[in-house]
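WARN retry 2 of 3 for item q-0093 after timeout on previous attempt; input resubmitted unchanged.
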Amino acid sequence: MTGLLDNLAPALLPAHAERFRDEVRAFLASELPPASADLRARSWMGYDAAFSRRLAARGWVGVTLPAEYGGAAMDAFSRFVLVEELLACGAPVSAHWIADRQSGPLILRYGTEAQRRFYLPKICAAEALFCIGMSEPNAGSDLASVGTRATRIEADAGNGGGGWRLQGRKIWTTNADHCDYMIALVRSAGSAEDRQRGLSQFIIDLKLPGVTVRPIRDLSGDAHFSEVFFDDVRLADDALIGREGAGWEQVTAELAFERSGPERLYSSIVLLDRWIRWLSAQEAGQATNAAQLATVGRFAAHLATLRQLSIAVTAKLAAGESPIVEAALVKDIGTEFEQQIPAAIEAALGADPAADVDADLLRAAAYLSQIAPTFSLRGGTREILRGMIARGLGLR
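OK item q-0093 returned
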């Protein structure tokens, strides 16, 4: 692990990013209505397209995309600050989240000029909402075994000019029922035994005939996941992103975008903040609970260290590098931290059954306890990430 950490040289957020933080905080103070802790704890999954459009009006959706495509042309450090502030206050980011973080940068890097000019300005205006189609039923974490297939249609006078015919389905697709487009990894050649070869990425208009979206309700009562069915869906030639057969290289880069930001540290931060505030109110004039103080101190130390690692990854992005393995490392230990918070807080609350715990804190703890197991699944399971890290260390 030491060799890998050596690649993450200590880095600081530059002065311009810290100045930007003040601007973001002022915006959130005026534009984000008050909400209970359990609602703010849903920040990752909080869907509010109107709020995303208000962010976009400030130029804060697609902040790292070039100005010629509607972006703010900011650097990765400024995006770090923006994401950190949004999650710290529990802002509902889900509507624009994937397009801003993954779809836009992917199209910028691999798309045609026509795709860039069509999709990127809409992403930056929060007018085109994207989801990602990777996971499939019966495939587990084995992304290379996808079975959804795109078959080329040979152009002739009777079929309207060729294109692709799509068959299959995707599952655990976030916000598919709200989104306009999906970027899907599908097999365009060969069979599942060919693994990474023969995979391609396509932009799919979810309003096309043959597309069916079925929301999935989870234990918390939310329905932010969906299963998406493709029944003989006709795609135009320009739906293909990049080269046919280059999907594995592209999706690997996309996952690096997904894993490299501070998103993987702050999923439980609203609960931690709410608990600390409750402790402060409870302990006013009372003896300090040493065990609870130790827990708070441990979380503060872990967060400070993880944040430094995340900033180091951001520095690599700002330098034009693609820190795939380093991002996997930070994502792995970051999601473990996120999962520890609700478990520790529930244990602390349960240790004193007579304590007068307010309902807002209890609801936030209950929600995060239910949803926390997904933290180490989304964006790549813990086992897959640790395999990547092992290869990066030369152990596999």
